[in-house]
Amino acid sequence: MGLALETLVGYNGNLTGSTTFDALTAASPGTFTIRSFVDGSNAYLQDVWAADTVGPFQLSIKSPRLHDQVKGILLAGTNKYVSTSQVFVPATLMPGKRIQRLYSTDVLSVTANGAASDVFAAAFNIRYENLGGINARLFTWDAISPYMVNEVGILTQPVPGGTAGQWGAQYVLNSGDNRLKANTDYALLGYTTSRTVLAVSVQGTDTGNLYLGGPGGPLSEDTAWFFASQSQFYGVPLIPVINSNNAGSTTVQIADILTSGTPNVTLIFQQLSQLMGNP
Questions:
Q1: What is the rounded (10 degree) CA torsion for 98, 148, 3, 254?
Q2: Assigned CATH for 138-272
Q3: Is 241:201 a contact under the CB 8 Å cutoff?
Q4: pLDDT in tens, 120-145
Q5: Which of 6, 29, 41, 123 is most buried as measured by Cβ atoms within 10 A of its Cβ?
Q6: Domain boundaries for CATH 2.60.120 within the chain
Q7: What pLDDT shows up at residue 79?
Q8: Which CATH number fits domain 4-128: 2.30.38, 3.30.2000, 2.60.120, 3.40.50?
Q9: pLDDT of res. 85
């Protein structure tokens, strides 16, 4: 079945600060148009997060097919953390089991409101139950945990994009740290970063060639367990399994408000004792 998870990013490099909301631009190669999925299956919006360079903001996600066309899903956030301004720290806006059903080929309107001249970026995941032509290798914790034998962290160093909020250049998974054992499946539980970034994603054959990721927040207890914890929250397969033979065609990329400075991004894998096949 065509399981898929896709991370989409939207950005605006100069909010107007007016009472109206400013449109976000979808970071390439993504768009805010829901992919056409197989009839009888569903797609869901989940895991929304955002970051701002200065302070409080509001994020709106709407479409004619959702609750209303005025502001739809309206979420408020701030870059302030523990009473101190922590610039560029992504705020989690839809945690836990909160999801929104989406509709095939519907076009989402993603807008934001904040102080004038703020740089703003938001990201969210779209989960497809059956996306034609795509079959990401996604598993539940129960499916992979009996086969875990070793944990390994693989260092990557993806660069941020030249435009705030855009995906940066793709970093080949095994280009700097080539320690995965040949023809072995590895479950990607999460990742840790040397500084906060808006989003971290992986992309390759095993992800259905979609950008698949999550927020690059400051708390490793959240990010190092992101895929595993989200799979357990939602009760659905969300843990990517990547075969080491595909490492040379699997890439890591980040999106961030900063446009310089290369963070260390360590992918947290569990080596599996057998090949998992396709779900």
A1: 70
A2: 2.60.120
A3: no
A4: 999 999 999 999 999 999 999 999 99
A5: 123
A6: 4-128, 138-272
A7: 76
A8: 2.60.120
A9: 47
